Amino acid sequence: MKIGIFGGTFDPIHVGHVNVVEEVKFALGLDKIIVVPAFLSPHKTSSTLGADARMKCVSLAVEAYDDVEVTDFEISQGKSIYSYNTLQYFNELYPDDEIIFIIGTDQYENFDKWYKSKDILEIYKVVVVSRNHEDITIQSPFEKVEIPIFDVSSTLIRERMVNNEPFQHLVPHTVYQYLKENH
What is the pTM of this model? Predict the structure, then answer.
C-alpha cells in the first residue's frame, strides 16, 4: 500500500486542507491518507483551538472519506512531536507499505532546519504541495504536486471567528457547525 501522512496544526482545518487530501491522493495514487493533527507544532508557540477541538474538527472534515483516517498519535502525547518521530511510528505500524510524507511549500522552505531532516529524506518520499502558479522551484529529492488554488488560511478563519464575520464557506459544513456551537 501507498500511505500518505499529512500532518499539521489544523487550527482550524479548512477546505484548502481537505482539497490537499483529495488532490494528493488522486495525483499519487495513494491507497490511504492519514491526517495527523499536532498537539502543538514544534515551530509554533500556541494554538487558538485546543488539541481536542482541533482533533474533532479534523475528524468531522474527513468523516465522509473511506480512505482517509485521522489519528491522535501526536495529540495523545500531550506535547510537540517531531515529524521524524511520527513518520517512524507509521513506518513501524506499516512496515510493508510505502510511507509518503506530505508537506506544504511553507514547510519546504524551512525543511533543512527540521529535526533529522536529512534522515527523513533518506527514508521517505517527501511530496511538496504547491498551489497552481506558485513561483517556487522544488529541488530533488522532494517531489512536487500542484493543486488548484484555494485562497484560505486558518489565520483568516480565526480572524473571522473573532470578528463575528462569516466563515462557513471556508470550512466543511460539519466543522462550521461544530465551531459555531462550541467556540
Answer: 0.91
